[in-house]
Amino acid sequence: MLSQQTKDIVKSTAPVLAEHGYTIVRRFYQRLFEAHPELKNVFNMAHQDRGQQQEALARAVYAYAANIENPESLAAVLENIAHKHASLGVKPDQYPIVGEHLLGALKDILGEEASPAIIDAWAQAYNSLAEILIGMEDRLREQSEAKPGGWTGWRTFVVREKNPESDIITSFVLEPADGGPVMDFAPGQYTSLALHVPQLDLQQIRQYSLSDMPNGRSYRISVKRESGLDTQRAGYVSCLLHEHINVGDEVQLAAPYGNFHIDVQAATPIVLISGGVGLTPMISMLKQALQGGQRQVVFVHGARNSTVQAMRNRLRMAAREHPNLSLFVFYNEPLPEDIAGDDYDYPGLVDVKLIKDKLLLPDADYYICGPIPFMRMQHDALQNLGIPESRIHYEVFGPDLFAE
């Protein structure tokens, strides 16, 4: 339990963190990787190169300082972090290493402003936070290991199917190399996949939504190929999967985690809003929600055009077969053949105002997944339609840049 004095000191540093947080975090990662280069195998180095991880951590440190009197307000954030850490294989003995270099970075950047009292208060606050997260992560791992087909750490899977879904998205069906069962998951959860990247001579981990219903035998992920000079290292793993990983090859998977999922026991309506490859967790949610045949589902998807929209035929077939499903597709750059066909319903970006009569359903929950600008736009649009924040759920992979 933190003393009031400790809370006061940490809270008093919030303005300093608002001003110098990014610089402190950059110094933290520099110190961390110099002392422990092996941790580059855990961190997403693309996010490091592009400054996204630094920005996200700086924002998180500031939020912790600003809300230290009201830690309950950070409960959802901590739950999300715990799921990601459990999936990435973060270990309890790594927390003291991170704490050492975070405090060292504070001293390096703030100099004399980082008084012994401030450093001591932050050490106590960090240790308190670390204990909370370690406890949450231990419970998550224990729950995974206790489930039929569950495991902790990395497990070897074999690619059984590799199926192109569009010009840029490919699905991989993965089965355990040991021939055993796999644990069920909540529709919307993800798995972490680890591959060795020869260009970096590092293991890199990426998290991919599970894009099919649980079946006890296999998992399916649907991966967008990231390429282009502007993506830097962001495309290394996806390009390896698309170009070099084939049927019969092995990959390492973590057990499913994530707190972005539907309540499979509920009967209330759900509205699924996705952009681009953000539809992958929605497909799993959709298939599960349609199982009973009674739950009202609205599926809204935005893509550039038919060449990049994954699973479009399956979506149209589902809409024809299930009267409780309403499907609305937006193409912001439709091709001439799209205009002549029936692959989409509206030109332009997803605009929920155009279909608000279909979206505003009693007791509905709204799920958003896609690029961060897309999610910001849809989140704000739903709020402008009167949807309460408690009914809006979203998923962010990598650094959480959603909240400013």
Beta percentage is 15-25%
Round the mean pLDDT to the nearest integer and report it. Answer: 91
Largest sheet: 6 strands, antiparallel
CATH class of the largest domain: Mainly Alpha
The tally of helices reads 13
Query: What is the fourth-level CATH superfamily of the largest domain?
Result: Globins
- CATH architecture type of the largest domain: Orthogonal Bundle
List low-confidence stretches.
Answer: 229-233, 398-404
Give the N-to-C terminal Cα separation: 29 Å
CATH fold field value of the largest domain: Globin-like
Tell me the helix content. Answer: 40-55%
Rounded Rg: 22 Å
Helix and strand composition category: alpha/beta
Strands in their spatial order, largest beta sheet = 4-3-6-1-2-5
This entry's quaternary arrangement is single chain
Order of helix and strand elements from N to C terminus:
HHHHHHHEEEEEHEEHEHEHEHEHE
GO molecular function, one term: nitric oxide dioxygenase NAD(P)H activity
Binding site for heme b: 85
Family: Belongs to the globin family. Two-domain flavohemoproteins subfamily. In the C-terminal section; belongs to the flavoprotein pyridine nucleotide cytochrome reductase family.
Pfam family, one: Globin
